[in-house]
């Protein structure tokens, strides 16, 4: 963690959605990779990890992205834009994932074979919408984890759902199985983020 934040609670409370980034600040590729790698410790359904990332740093590409993303200024000023993309055919990785877990000593062979069999019986037959819902939920988990990791390292973020997802898929020639979900601006804040309040617990929590 950074010197400024010493506890997870501090990081959670300090993380705000920044919309004005320092356009001169560049984050090295290896630092971005380090943050993404750490973020992949997030949980996912059957550990199928249905998230994919596109790290967009090229200026011309970001200008084109801005055109179908409501001209949000942070698309050009953030150090990088990380597109979080759901893989709705996550089942193609079943063998690789469970065999890797077996080789790492996380499960025995019988458990591996049982997990593979169960996953193959479930995921390929599930409707597209069901698989998209699973992938979107899991991608939300890793997105939040990534933003907290970035804050712990002294960087700022903003999640952006306001963009033409069909145009994004066309622009980057995504196969139909891949669905863009959110863009995360990553960089150094050039101005403080706005504070925000939250609903009281008695409006959102019920104990039964």
Could you walk me through the main structural features you see in this protein, from its secondary elements to its overall organization?
The protein has nine helices and four strands. By secondary structure, the protein is of the alpha+beta class. The chain has one domain (8-204): NADH Oxidase (3-Layer(aba) Sandwich). It is globular, with a radius of gyration of 19 Å. The protein starts with 7 loop residues before the first helix and ends with a helix.
Give the uncertain stretches in residue-range form. none
Give the strand order of the largest sheet, numbering strands 1, 2, ... along the chain. Answer: 1-2-4-3
* SS element count, helices: 9
Can you give the mean pLDDT? 96
N→C terminal distance: 37 Å
* Annotated CATH topology: NADH Oxidase
Beta strand %: 5-15%
CATH architecture: 3-Layer(aba) Sandwich
Query: Rg, please?
Result: 19 Å
How many β-strand runs? 4
Q: Return the structural class.
A: alpha+beta
What helical percentage do the residues reach?
40-55%
Q: What best-fitting shape do the alpha-carbon axes yield?
A: globular
Q: What's the CATH first level?
A: Alpha Beta
């Amino acid at each position: 963690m950074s010197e400024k934040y010493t506890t997870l609670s501090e990081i959670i409370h300090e993380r705000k959605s920044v919309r004005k980034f320092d356009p001169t600040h560049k984050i090295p590729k290896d630092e971005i990779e380090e943050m993404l790698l750490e973020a992949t410790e997030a949980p996912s359904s059957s550990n199928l990890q249905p998230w994919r990332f596109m790290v967009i740093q090229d200026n011309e590409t970001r200008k084109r992205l801005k055109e179908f993303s409501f001209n949000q200024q942070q698309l050009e000023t953030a150090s990088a834009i990380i597109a979080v993309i759901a893989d709705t055919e996550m089942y193609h990785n079943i063998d690789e994932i469970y065999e890797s877990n077996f080789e790492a000593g996380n499960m025995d062979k019988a458990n591996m074979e049982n997990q593979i069999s169960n996953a193959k019986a479930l995921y390929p037959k599930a409707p597209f919408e069901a698989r998209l819902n699973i992938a979107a939920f899991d991608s939300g988990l890793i997105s939040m984890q990534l933003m907290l990791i970035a804050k712990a390292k002294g960087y700022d973020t903003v999640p952006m759902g306001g963009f033409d997802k069909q145009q994004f898929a066309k622009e980057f020639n995504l196969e139909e199985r891949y669905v863009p979900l959110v863009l995360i601006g990553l960089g150094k804040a050039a101005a403080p983020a706005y504070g925000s309040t939250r609903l009281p617990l008695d409006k959102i929590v019920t104990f039964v």
